[in-house]
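Before the break, one more example. Copy the sequence into your notebook; we will annotate it together after we see the structure.
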Amino acid sequence: MRGIWIAGLVMLLLIVPSVAEENSSIAIQNLNVEPQRLFVGDSAIVTVTLYNPLESAVKVSSVSVLGSGISYDSFELGYIPPKSTHTFSFAVKAVKEGVHNVEVAFYTESGAVRSYFTLFVENRMPEIAFSENVKVGEVNNLSLIISSPVEIENVVIDPLFESEPDRIILSSVSGTAEVPIRFFGERSDYEFRVSFYSGNNYHSYTAKLTPAFEEGSELAVSVSVPQSSAFLYDVVEISATITNLKDDAVSAIKFSASSNNGKVLLSTDEIAELESGESSEVTLLYSPERSGRDVITLAISYKDGMGKERTLEKAVNIDVQDSSAVDVSGVEIEAKATSSASAPPRGMFGPTSSSVSTRVEITVSGEVVNRGFSYAKNVLVYLDFGSDTEEYFVGEVEPSDSDSFSIPASGSERSVKVVVEWTNELGEVHSISKSYQLNPITVSTTSPPQRQSLLTPLNLAAVAIAAVGGVLVFRKWRSRRKNESNRAG
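Here is what the structure looks like once it is written out:
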């Protein structure tokens, strides 16, 4: 305990100015040093009050200031009036760091009066540091720590990078002080313009801070693709979950999507805000239109906690098959060709001629197959004969399902095209077609009754017989007339 008291007394003697007199006619009534803690190059103002107790004026012939690590400009005081005090100030400049004991002596004709004070000189300027590691890639909400071995006043700190606030003002700092600061973390040095007063000494300098870094959190984007391949014109639902892993909220989150070989539709194109730790989902409806490997890219832009726009992308690959999601299969064609002949009016001579026409009566049946992962809507099947069509409305076909159709038709063509048309879940109309040759199973011919000619062999024979009979009758009749005439004569 005794040692502590002695140490305290020594420190008090070092700090408090002391006075020594050598039979001088004047006395040092007061001595004040401001500031007593300095930076190298600073000046302390020493204010002294001298008292003359005599009835006559006293001349101060000279003044001396002695001490290592300091300098001062010499000056003269002159006379101090009788029974009065005289207060004056002079500057002592610190030129070297350390603890310096300084002696001030005032000389008169009758002797000298002395006083002592101590200066604490620092070579280290105020320092700044972040309270935590800087997270790269996200907004940091940290404290800026200012530490100074000397009390400083009117402190102004200007961050030379984008931050909130963009200027920090402190009335004074003694030891350490902390102020909040908010900025976007990047892997680089951070510079500050620092200015302050130490007593009457003004300082301004640029401080460079190289903090410890750690990888910051981002917006985490998780994409779920139901399958790695898809059929042409199908609609694949791709889910994306966006999670804010940052320490602060993000806002104005906007989405856009693109594809090399197809079309992409988003369930939403903007989310107002995501708080820290909050998640949200967005759905991409993707419809491939060309086969091969396709890249679907989800682009995200958002504003961080400081209102600055940031961007990121997430891409997924899908292999597109060279076949349509909707197809027609199991097509069966039942066909029967019928022919009919027509005859002209009966002629008098020669055989008759007729014209023959053939007509095909068919029934086309089959299955509309949906191999995709989305609904096929407004499915229509029609038969295209070139100049004529027959339609059959199927309606809606569920994913991985099929529906049958059967279409009767007739015509004289020898081939038919089966066309399937549908609307996918993006509202786009697509169609496929397949051609088939008609192979009749049976052919039947129907002809109308032919008109007989009058000059048939039977009719000719009858005419001949009738003619011979007529000749015989006529000759017999003439013979009888001739005999009758001879008798009469």
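The mean pLDDT is 83. Residues 335 and 362 are 4 Å apart (CA to CA). Try to locate both features in your own notes.
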